[in-house]
Amino acid sequence: MKYKETAVIKEQRELATGIYSMWLQAERIAGEAVPGQFLSVYSRDESRMLPRPISICEINREQGALRLVYRIAGKGTLEFSQYGPGDSLELVGPLGNGFPLDKGYGKVFLIGGGIGIPPMVELAAQLPGEKQIVAGYRNHELFLKEELERNGSVYIATEDGSAGTRGNVLDAIRKNGLKAEAIFACGPTPMLRALKAYAAEHGMDCYLSLEERMACGVGACLGCVCRSMDVDSHTYVKNKRICKDGPVFAAEDIEL
Amino acid sequence: MVNKHMKYGTCVNLAGVELKNPVMTASGTFGSGAEYSEFYDLSALGAVVTKGVANVPWPGNPTPRIAETASGMLNAIGLQNPGIDVFIERDIPFLRQFDTRIVVNVCGRTISDYCEVVERLSDQPVDLLEINVSCPNVKEGGIAFGQKPEALEEVTRQVKKHAKQPVIMKLSPNVTSIGEMARAAEAGGADVLSLINTLTGMKIDIHKRAFALANRTGGLSGPAIKPVAVRMVYEAAQAVSLPIIGMGGIQNGEDALEFILAGATAVSVGTANFANPCSAKEVAEGIRAYMEQYQVEKIQDLIGAVGSVY
Predict the structure, then answer these.
(1) Exposed end of chain B (fewer CB within 10 Å): N or C?
(2) From CA A244, how far away is CA A97, in angstroms rounded?
(3) Which residues make beta-bridge pairs with A211?
(4) Per-residue confidence in pLDDT tens, chain B, 310 aa
(5) Which one of B29, B39, B51, B66 would you mutate to disrupt binding with A, by most A Cβ within 10 Å of its Cβ?
(6) Cβ A236–B275 below 8 Å, yes or no?
């Protein structure tokens, strides 16, 4: 079930340069959300009509609260960052399918690149098995590192070498000699492409969370499709909707 | 319980098809209703207009297909659709669950494509057909039929020969004279006109020095185009005696009333569905609130009533 809900901001703070964390009171959405799903967040400025799709970082069902960690990517997210406790935002969610939690893997990689790191926090909390969390950052601003450490062993890669392994997430995996049965990942497309190839090479299962420009967010407009190996359930033309059929796909089912 | 649409007289008639209220959905923004039925009962709407359906499945354009613009958006979906077979099997039965009129938007590359789809729909429980001769995002068909009066008249005439249901011709705003196009559709035998489709536009990402859309150009929609749309509905209403479905940037009851006062019998809500999944229903509520405020007994009294003093 999807809900349209007016959510009150409980807390907002900047975690790193241009990266913000926001806790929202949204009982109905929090009551049903699962790791890997996202929300449509609506601007209050009517000149920005389209919702911003933002992945869920943490779910607190008892308190009916959700945490979003997002990057200022334009005027819409800049607007969101300027709101504080007591302000409200219109949300629709939970949207998309989320990561599969029931595959029974013993040892997995949870891999986040940049603003793809936030969904790994709730995934690490809910996914069973031994979790090796690999987080790729631009620099020493290691946002969400403490949250990730609660539910797994964390390995860091930074582009500038200021923390952890210099380079990308695969460099960190190789340098630390890590192995796993499956990959769960979210991040920039070049990273996802490299992980898909890595998984295929090592015979691993691999689940990737994709992003694309969206309009409706609910599967109606067909704006955010990706090329898939299987026929999609809407048009039967191998065009899966990232907002509805995804955002999480088995790597072998999609073209990147 | 008081039936509100009866009380305030919100019923309108499109070529003999009665709608409980004048609010419809704009083709392409609402799928076949399934996704929005999760948010409200589609029976609140006068009609659901489906996304365009062709004789065979169309995969649509490459991504990105969407770009936001000031008070609007560009899209270049390219009429991705599952084709008429799946549509008849899946989408029509779905929509039949609701107490609302079903309008099927028909797209094609050639006149015979349109006629084939229209014929396939002839024995189906759909109320009206809307012929898309105005999509700016496909190379063949679409707008190619919608920019020359002679071509529009001819496709209208051919479609009418095969159609069992009343035919709505959906007009493009990307023309020199909307009145001339409206007259051409009327001459071809159209029963109803709908306008406007999107305006062709372009957005450039200056940081990447690239087109924002893979298709380079796309259709501009949303409140940014509303004044253009109201003007065109007014001009078309002056030019022909057919009922008109007005659309272009409608977000609330007030917007819808501008179109009705300009001469529209019904209105469609499009891009606003993306800004608020309940917006079409809220437009219908807004029209009722206006009628109550101004003690308007029948909505028919408002159609084309701009300039009338009372």
Answers:
(1) N
(2) 7
(3) none
(4) 444 444 679 999 999 999 999 999 999 999 999 999 999 999 999 999 999 999 999 999 999 999 999 999 999 999 999 999 999 999 999 999 999 999 999 999 999 999 999 999 999 999 999 999 987 777 666 677 889 999 999 999 999 999 999 999 999 999 999 999 999 999 999 999 999 999 999 999 999 999 999 999 999 999 999 999 999 999 999 999 999 999 999 999 999 999 999 999 999 999 999 999 999 999 999 999 999 999 999 999 999 999 876 5
(5) B66
(6) no
Q: Are A102 and A130 in contact (CB under 8 A)?
A: no
| The Cα angle at residue B303 between residues B302 and B307, in degrees rounded to 5 | 70
Tell me if B267 sits within 8 A of B245, measured CB to CB. Answer: yes
Cα separation, B58 vs A246, whole angstroms: 21
SS3 content of chain B, % helix, strand, coil (to 5): 35, 20, 45
CA gap B55, B166 in Å, rounded: 19
Question: What is the C-alpha separation between B260 and B305, in angstroms, rounded?
Answer: 8
Q: Are B165 and B126 in contact (CB under 8 A)?
A: yes
Q: What is the ipTM of this complex?
A: 0.94
Which domains, and CATH codes, for chain A? 3-95 (2.40.30.10), 107-253 (3.40.50.80)
Chosen for mutation from A216, A226, A239 (greatest number of chain B CBs closer than 10 Å) is A216
B39/A contact by beta carbon, under 8 A: yes
User: Which residues in chain A are contacts of B74 at CB distance < 8 A?
Assistant: none
Q: What residue segments make up the domains of chain B, in order of their start?
A: 4-302
- Which residues of B belong to the active site? 135
Q: Which of B171, B132, B147, B143 is nearest to B49 (CA)?
A: B132
CATH topology of domain B4-302: TIM Barrel (3.20.20)
Q: Which pairing describes strands B128-132 and B199-202: parallel, antiparallel, or unpaired?
A: unpaired
Residue-wise pLDDT for B117-138, tens only, equals 999 999 999 999 999 998 777 7
Tracing tokens 């297909």 back to the chain, one arrives at B65
Taking CA–CA distances from A239, the nearest residue in chain B reads B59
